[in-house]
Amino acid sequence: MDDGPVTRKRQRADVTDVLLVGGVEKRDLFLVEHAPAWVDLYRTHESRIRSVLGDVAESVEHIGSTSVPGLAAKPIIDILVTVPDITAEEDYLDPLIAAGYVLRVREPGHRLVRTDQRDVHIHLLEPNAPAAADYLLLRDHLRSHAEDRQLYEATKRDLITREWPDMNAYADAKTTVIEEIKKRARSSRSAG
pLDDT tens track of the chain, all 192 residues? Predict the structure, then answer.
């Protein structure tokens, strides 16, 4: 019997502020057609993550646009790694940094490390974090619903033509469409 999400005792209080290591970065934003090689790049990093984190990595998933065949994307592989306790950074952050990843974001409930080349972003969340479920919901829905995949790509193509101070502003601008798609995904899932 499922009693709902597991509540874990945290080792310490989580951070309360957002730390963007290195500050705001201006980057050229562009989309490319989906590349089958993205799966191979994901698998390389999945293996690397699992080898350094072992059982601390409760799940490792390819997320984001590069995980959706047929969807144009920024050529950045997004990976979701769930860990039992986001506050126990010594269990996951130290090994990932030792393996060559760089801390970019530390915020309540979420950490992000990336490669020096900035072509792989690893999002660290706890398994019961709503954002973790939302990443998978959006990915799975876009993989199986061509109309929403086309809407999302058209939105990204429109937004990419505008000037953005950083990638976060571009990502924030996609929020309305992403929320609409997730709402349809939840409705579709509950009807099925």
Answer: 445 445 567 889 999 999 888 877 777 788 999 999 999 999 999 999 999 999 999 999 999 999 999 999 999 999 999 999 999 999 999 999 999 999 999 999 999 999 999 999 999 999 999 999 999 999 999 999 999 999 999 999 999 899 888 778 888 999 999 999 999 999 988 876
Give the span between the Cα atoms of 20 and 178, in whole angstroms: 23
Exposure string for 48-58, b = 16+ CB within 10 A, e = fewer: bbeebbeebbe
Contact 79, 112 (CB under 8 A): no
Give the relative orientation of helices 37-53 and 89-98 as an angle to the nearest 10 degrees: 120
Distance, in Å, from the CA atom of 120 to the CA atom of 140, rounded to the nearest integer, reads: 20
Quote the CA–CA distance of 101 and 94 in Å, as a whole number. 10
Q: How far apart are CA 182 and CA 192, in angstroms?
A: 15
Alpha-carbon dihedral sign for residues 117, 175, 19, 25? positive
